[in-house]
């Protein structure tokens, strides 16, 4: 079914085809009625023919909203139906198919725009966590391969223990020098 209509319409090429269809239907109905009315009076026959014509006209009037002539709805036609260009049904179906495809692509793109940033965020966080775990494992491996035990006072393994110890010793020595300079400066000022 067409996405733009819930129910498809009956397609007819031209208004003349529609008029010919109505005329053929009316002739067939009148012929059938004449076959059943062999022994009736003309007054009865005229009354039945009038009712039959009214029924046929109402039937076709009811059918008009469900009719498509040359790709146009019956209501949108002008009175004579002559000012129309030929309608290409295949092209119309192709256009609506492309419009539906376009809508599906817009939905896919919108979904990707919503989901991709979340996916990238979780992937990057997982990679960063894995990198941190790998770095910690590498540091522990390096610390265990050093010649000294590199253990602190509590027996806990500390990475780069030698560098930390040397840095602390230098800092302590500088602090002691500053204390001596400060004490000397205080003595000189006091004198």
From TrEMBL:
One of its GO terms (biological process) is mitotic sister chromatid segregation. GO terms for cellular component: kinetochore. This is Uncharacterized protein. It comes from Crucibulum laeve.
């Amino acid at each position: 079914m067409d996405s733009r209509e819930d129910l498809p319409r009956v397609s007819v090429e031209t208004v003349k085809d529609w008029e010919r269809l109505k005329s053929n239907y009316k002739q067939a109905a009148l012929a059938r009625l004449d076959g059943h009315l062999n022994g009736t009076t003309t007054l009865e026959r005229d009354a039945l023919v009038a009712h039959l014509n009214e029924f046929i006209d109402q039937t076709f009037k009811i059918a008009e909203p469900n009719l498509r002539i040359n790709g146009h709805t019956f209501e949108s036609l002008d009175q004579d139906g002559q000012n129309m260009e030929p309608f290409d049904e295949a092209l119309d179906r192709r256009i609506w198919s492309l419009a539906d495809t376009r809508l599906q692509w817009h939905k896919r793109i919108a979904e990707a725009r919503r989901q991709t940033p979340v996916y990238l965020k979780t992937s990057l966080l997982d990679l960063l966590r894995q990198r941190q775990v790998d770095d910690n494992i590498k540091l522990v491996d390096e610390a265990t391969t050093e010649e000294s035990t590199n253990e602190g006072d509590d027996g806990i393994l500390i990475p780069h223990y030698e560098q930390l110890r040397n840095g602390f010793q230098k800092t302590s020595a500088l602090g002691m020098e500053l204390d001596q300079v400060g004490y000397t400066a205080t003595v000189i000022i006091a004198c």
